[in-house]
Amino acid sequence: MKPPQFSYYDPRTTAEVVGLLTSHDNAKLLAGGQSLMPMLNMRYVLPDHIVDLNRVDGLDYIREQNGAPGSGAIEIGAMTRQRDIEFSDLVRRRCPLMHEAIAQVGHRQTRNRGTLGGSLCHLDPAAELVSVAAALDASLAITGKNGVRSVDFAAFPLGYMTPALEPDDLLTGVTFPCWPDGHGSAFVEFSRRHGDFAIVSAAALIEEDTTGKVTRAALTLGGLGPAPVRAGAVERALIGETIGDRRLRDICEPLRKLDALEDIHAPASYRQHLATVLARRAFLKAHERIVAGRGM
Amino acid sequence: MSETRRIAVTVNGARREETVPVRLTLADFLRHRLGLTGTHLGCEHGVCGACTILFDGYSARSCLMLAVQADGHDIVTVEGIANGGALHPLQEAFRDNHGLQCGFCTPGILTTLIELLRDNPDPTEQDIRIGISGNLCRCTGYHNIVAAALDAARRMRGP
Question: Does the pLDDT at position B1 exceed 60?
Fold first, then answer.
């Protein structure tokens, strides 16, 4: 299998990238290549121009944004390797959901090359990082020919694997708001083999008051629909509840009614079933982590 | 005419300069241009792991990279693991534990494990199984591969 013919560019600055995208039709950005290269090899995509981002300066960083103590946000450059996120102390400490999710992204060899920005722009509905971005209400810094703009992740997926990007846009960085110290989170998924895309994943975040009542909750389901789904009704229903298996069964049951994809891997009804099960498991795990943290 | 570029790559310690089509994959560059056929190509879309090499010391699928992306970088293939005529302890452990049958997946597993054992000299069986989860073997059923990797870790840690 060989990629089709294309012209190749390896610019050094974001301005050069945007310039190339503006002046070339049918150009494709090459980030870590862990999705685009297979698509080229199999000729699912036939770009006339490849703009390689691997030599662009300033897109590879993980840093803490200043905020109130115990809150704030983490900023990660679009060309940051998934490996660097996996081994980042800052991410593990401030954003345990992402730390847990990234170990389930592909394999060591693909995380060494694969990037945050590449995964988000590829926008596979079952991709772990896409779900994490939805779960944490990430915001995206996008540079285009009219300058820089910020896009909420909720407005980023326009449809199945279709990000809200113009042909001359470049995602440069992502801001992930952190939940306060003491919150609980869990990322659980079901896949046929380790490293596969999830058939369904659930990302749960909760805060509880000192009596154990939920004061804030977030639930994101990946792999269910054409883009990650935030289950707002479940998030609201959990407020004031005490986390327990029986109550969670009731609260998560309506997830069975959500629209679900159907493909060779699983029928829609199975995905809907997984959504109820994985959501419950994720909330239980997040709660257990809060309890364990209190005990220390 | 296919667009070409001049690249300079260090492969197994030796500097190689070549003119390559920009669409040439790194795997095909290693195999066809440099004659290093130890890097195997199974699926050519990043699933099987047979083409894994070390790129600046980190394992990567060479079917998912372009040769032009390696310009100025350092590559180690399975041919570069042994020290002259002396096998690497990892290779010895694979031989002693019957860690291969047909050998097709072996180059990718060895390069993957070089990185894993460097980062984690005392891995658990689970660490090894997760570490090679991106390498498909159709002969051994992994059991002897895992045993070989654990044995190699012991040998490399020393007495």
Answer: no
Cβ of residue B157 closer than 8 Å to a chain A Cβ: no
User: Is the pLDDT score of A296 beyond 50?
Assistant: no
- Rounded CA gap, A260 and A257, in Å? 9
Is it true that domain B4-80 has CATH number 3.30.930.10?
no
Are B95 and B106 spatial neighbours (Cβ–Cβ below 8 Å)? no
Best A39, A43, A53, A107 residue to mutate vs chain B (most B CBs within 10 Å): A107
> What is the set of domains in chain A, with CATH numbers?
7-52 (3.30.43.10), 62-177 (3.30.465.10), 184-295 (3.30.390.50)
Q: What are phi and psi of A242, to 5 degrees?
A: -100, 130
Q: Give the distance from residue B117's alpha carbon to the nearest chain A alpha carbon, in angstroms.
A: 13
**Residue pLDDT, tens place only, A32-86:** 999 999 999 999 999 999 999 999 999 999 999 876 555 699 999 999 999 999 9
For every residue of A185-226, DSSP letters joined together read: EEEEEE-SSTTSPPSEEEEEEEEE-TTSBEEEEEEEEESSSS
Cβ neighbors of B1 (< 8 A, separation 6 or more) are: none
What CATH architecture applies to the domain B89-157? Answer: Orthogonal Bundle (1.10)
By C-alpha distance, the chain B residue nearest A81 is: B58
Using an 8 Å Cβ cutoff, are A119 and A82 in contact? yes
User: B93 Cβ partners below 8 Å, 6+ apart?
Assistant: B99, B148, B149, B151, B152, B155
Shortest CA distance from A52: residue in chain B: B69
This model's pTM is above 0.90 = yes
Please indicate whether, in this complex, the C-beta atoms of A110 and B46 are within 8 angstroms of each other. Answer: yes
